[in-house]
Amino acid sequence: MIRVVLPAPLRELARVEGEIRLEVEAPVTQRAVLDALEARFPPLRGAIRDPGTGERRALVRFFACGKDLSHEPPDSSLPEAVASGEEPLVVVGAIAGGGLPAP
Amino acid sequence: MSRVRLLVGTRKGAFILEADGTRKRWSVRGPHFAGWQIFHLKGSPAEPDRLWAAQYADWYGQMIQRSDDGGRSWEPVGNAFAYAGEVGAHQSHDGTPRPWKFRRVWHLEPAPDDPQVVYAGAEDAALFRSTDGGRTWSEFPALRRCWGEAWQPGAGGLCLHTILLDPADPRWIRVAISAAGVFGTDDAGETWRPMNRGLVSAYLPDPQAEVGHCVHRLAMHPSRPEVLFMQKHWDVMRSDDGGKNWHEISGNLPSDFGFPIEVHAHEPETLYVVPIKADTERFPPEGKLRVYRSRSGGGEWEPLARGLPQEHCYVNVLRDAMAVDRLDPCGVYFGTTGGQLYASADGGETWQALLRDLPAVLSVEAQALP
Lengths: 103, 370
What we know:
The complex is a heterodimer.
Chain A: E1 2-5, H1 8-14, E2 20-22, H2 30-40, E3 60-64, E4 67-68, H3 80-83, E5 89-93
Parallel strand pairs in A: 1-5
Antiparallel strand pairs in A: 1-2, 3-4, 3-5
Chain B: E1 3-10, E2 13-20, E3 27-32, E4 37-43, E5 51-57, E6 61-67, E7 75-76, E8 89-91, E9 97-99, E10 104-110, E11 118-123, E12 126-130, E13 138-139, H1 141-144, E14 159-166, E15 169-178, E16 181-185, E17 193-194, E18 215-219, E19 228-232, E20 236-239, E21 247-248, E22 261-263, E23 271-273, E24 291-294, E25 302-304, E26 322-324, E27 332-335, E28 341-344, E29 352-355, E30 361-369
Antiparallel strand pairs in B: 1-2, 1-30, 2-3, 4-5, 5-6, 6-7, 8-9, 10-11, 11-12, 12-13, 14-15, 15-16, 16-17, 18-19, 19-20, 20-21, 22-23, 23-24, 24-25, 26-27, 27-28, 28-29
C-alpha cells in the first residue's frame, strides 16, 4: 500500500480528505504512483503532470523520506520506505497564494 | 422569462447569483472552486442548467468543469488540449519564434443548439471544440495556419478570447486573438482568413497590417451576424459585412480604449462600452466609472453613470466581464478588477452594486431562465 499526501487544492479537486492509499504493483516508481493516482482520481489528470508531455508541472515538487525526489527520473524506484507504505510520497505545491506570472 | 442567473468568474473562484424578473433581490452562491482562477463560465443556450467553467491555477494547470444543475454541483471533464499536427511556432514578444504551448482556456462558448458541443478559446491562441460534453477536445488547426507564424502575444498572453457563433449557420465562426486580430471561417473551420481590413494600429510597423492588431473584444446581436462590433486597443470599430471591412465608430467617447463591448438584447443598434484611460493607466478617465451607450450603432455615445462611483474610482473592466440579459427591459451587468459587480435592470439608465468585495472579476455572463 502506497501512501500519498496531496496539497489542499488537489485534495479538493479529487474530493478526498487526508492521506490517500493506493495499491501499486512493483516496481514502485514515481510514474507508477502517479498513474495509479490519476486512474483512481481522474480529476487529477493534468494537475500534477502536463497531460501532453507527462512532465511534472513547474510549481509542483515531490518529497519523501526527507528528500527532494522532484528531479529523479520518473521510472526510477521510489525509496523502499515509500514502497512499503512506511513513509508517504508528498506532493507539494509552491508556496504563494497571491498569484504569479504565468509560467 | 422570469428569472436571471449571473455567472461570475473571479481570480479566486466563481460566484452564481439569481434573481426574479424584477432583478431587485439577488441570491449569491459561492465561491465555487475557491482559490482557483475562473477565467470564464457560460451556460448552454440549448440547456440552460448545463454550465461550463474554465478553472485554472498557475500551479496545477487547466481544469474544465461542467454542471448539469445550474451550478449546484460540478464535475471535472476533459482537460487534454493538444494542438493538432505540426505544432510550429508563433512569435515571442521580441519577435523570435516560440513553439506553440497550451497554457489555459480564456473563453468557453457553448453551441446555440446542442448542449454536447462547446468551443474553447485557448492560450497559446487556438480554437478547440468538444462534441461529447467536454470529455474530449479537438483543435481547428487550420486557424493557426492562417498567418500563425506572425502572431505575437499581447502582454496578457497570446490568447483567443472571443468566439462568435451564428445561431442560424453552424459553419460561420468569428474569433479574436490578442494581439493577432480577427479571423473567420464560413466552412465550419476548414479554412480561415484574417478579417482586419480597416483596422489601423499605430503601434504596428505597418499600421494597416494583415495581422497583429490587438483586438480586445467582439460583439454581435445573435439575429444579425453580418454586423459586428469591436473594442480594440484604441478604437471602437464596426463591420457591416461579417468582418470583411471595419470602420471606426469611437465618435465622442472620452477614451476609445477599453476592453468589453456588448449589444443590447432587443435593440441591435444599441451598444455598451466602458472607456478606460490608456495606455499605462488602465482606469476610468477622471476617476469616474461610466458606461457609455450608443443607440445609433456607434459614433454618438452618452455616459451612463447613475449609481456608479463618480470620484476616486480606479478599477478596470476586463474583456469578458460585461453581459446583457434577454429580459425586457434589458439588464446590463459588469464586474471590475476591484471586485465590484454592477447591475442595471433598465438598459443602463441606473446601476446598483450587487456585490462590492469580490476578488478581481474576470468574467460575467447572464442567463435568462424560464
